[in-house]
Design brief:
Layout (H helix, E strand, L loop, with lengths): L2 H5 L2 H13 L3 H6 L5 H24 L1 H8 L11 H25 L7 H24 L29 H9 L3 H4 L6 H25 L3 H7 L10
Helix pairs in contact: 4-5, 4-7, 6-10, 7-8
């Protein structure tokens, strides 16, 4: 079995279809408003962002795609991440789902074009930061775990020079503006839920890496902030 066959298992293909195509399309599928340009933009950014980032990451680190394809099947994830990682995925899916429901049953507000253009720019910036982190870090797994079998070590290059968890920082930038793009007030509820999970997971992951990954304690002294430079 070649490397491509190892990565593209039936399970992985199903997960990609659901989470990479189905979830971004939820606002359109639920509302059935096929002329909703903001929802098309949201779907396009998510789908194309995933394809481009994984293509670039796969060229840099082919084994990383196989690692991420084993989501929830790893033997040694941190026990708390068996709960937090799926919850984070759930929160990310609830945001477009709620936005789609609100569009179907009556939107409360309609944000201006300026606000929506700003939202698109911020979402793209978040994707760029998250993708940069993925490409720079061969150990960017979907589950928090020490990857001894892959020679896990501290990554200090790329966006890891600025914050210790740039992938999460990109998500933190993106989530709050999605409701602005999709004219959804109710979607802010899952946004707050998702950000809370993200912050807790960042804290626990950082603590675990300090304890278990050689050199991370020293790295944390060099790069002081976890998510937001100058804040935390």
């Amino acid at each position: 079995m070649n490397e491509k066959q190892k990565i593209l298992t039936p399970r992985v293909v199903l997960m990609l279809t659901i989470f990479i195509i189905g979830v971004p399309m939820l606002p359109l599928l639920i509302s059935w408003q096929w002329d909703w340009w903001e929802a098309w933009v949201y779907a396009a950014i998510n789908i194309l962002g995933f394809i481009i980032s994984r293509y670039l990451a796969g060229r840099q680190h082919p084994d990383l795609l196989a690692e991420r394809g084993q989501f929830l099947q790893h033997k040694n994830p941190e026990p708390w991440d068996k709960i937090l990682s799926p919850l984070l995925g759930l929160g990310g899916g609830l945001i477009p789902l709620v936005a789609g429901l609100e569009a179907r049953f009556g939107q409360v507000v309609h944000f201006s074009l300026v606000v929506k253009v700003f939202s698109i720019i911020v979402i793209l910036a978040g994707f760029v930061i998250g993708s940069y982190a993925l490409i720079a870090n061969r150990f960017f797994s979907g589950m928090v775990r020490i990857q001894n079998e892959r020679g896990h070590h501290v990554i200090k290059t790329g966006p890891y020079r600025w914050v210790r968890h740039p992938g999460y920082a990109g998500s933190l930038l993106t989530y709050p503006v999605i409701p602005l793009l999709l004219d959804s007030v109710w979607a802010f509820i899952p946004v707050f839920f998702t950000i809370a999970i993200l912050v807790v997971r960042t804290y626990l992951e950082d603590r675990a890496l300090k304890k278990k990954l050689e050199g991370y304690q020293e790295y944390a002294q060099e790069v002081r902030f976890r998510l937001i430079p100058g804040v935390w």
